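During data preparation, we tokenized the protein backbone, and the record follows.
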Amino acid sequence: MQTNRKIHVALLFGGNSSEHDVSKRSAHNIYDAMDKQKYDVSLFMFTKDGVLLGDQASKRIFDGEEEDDVVADEYPKIDVHNPLAPILALQEVQDIDIFYPVIHGNLGEDGTVQGLFKLLKKPYIGSNVLASAVSFDKDMTKRILSQAGVRNTKYAVVTPENKDAMTWTKISQELGNTVFIKPANQGSSVGIHRAVNEQEYVDGLTDAFNYDFKILVEEAIAGPKEIEISILGNEKPRASKLGAVRVPDSDEFYDYQNKFVDASGVVFELPVILPEKLTNEITQMALKAYVALGMKGLSRIDFLVDQNGVPYLSEPNTLPGFTNISLYPQMWEVSGISYSELIDQIIQYGLAEYQRNSKIKYDFEELGTEHVGKKEYNLDE
């Protein structure tokens, strides 16, 4: 890559997840904050059906045109019989230096587009296929965290195969009389329910199964304080100051509505002032989790702190939001890194990780003539 020209960034957003519109907002903010003296930016939006629109169509949506109208204009141009149709728009531009996915949820955080970038042999920001996949799956995340000694809440996994055995009586005996029901592979509080009795438990599971076939049922933390921390880096990650989220007393938890739609009743403490011991414990837990999960580039990690001041890691987010409400960039701003500088660093970490992986060698040995050993069959008489 030449150093005397701008870095060409392909900014991908949208997707066929419940966080489609959140992704659009995040991408717009990132695009606006990018230093156009350093970067040429091409836009690619995944529609709600998972088809990638090209730069011009994506810019029309960025400029305020109704998405449905733009999609209606573009779909007749797509050869649906071409197996590469969902990603064919990438051929519109050349010499992409790095992919910058801002796709929350499915496609973006589950390792899907990371696999695409690897096939294309191009750098990209954020975690790789494996780290993205295990960090998106709440069950796999907890398994790795527990093995690494990072405190997290007790839970049970419910699937269509075992749900009849996972009765409210069994769950409440194991996890307590208040539980949270969560699809294992969803984000932004989609499909999440709080249950305090059998009917709420059954209804919550029924809805959650609309979003995944693996459901986590977690113990509730008494009077929790929601704490978030931003992580940045590759082999030597660093942590921001901590932020806190206080939701209105009338809300049961930090749900999709007050995360992305109406945060007028939410209080954000930036940075939050906690006892030094607790601040250090959360910071070290976050960094330990980041390394254990193999994350790279960036992550926002969420915690719950109980009434006794004991922190529990709630979940990591490998491609955190960059909306006006999102805490990831705000926590770095109060830690001394501006929005624009943060994007610069995220891109540089993506390029550095690609260069690091390019040093891995693969040896290919020709097999030559195949020689098969003698087979002895022991048949039952």
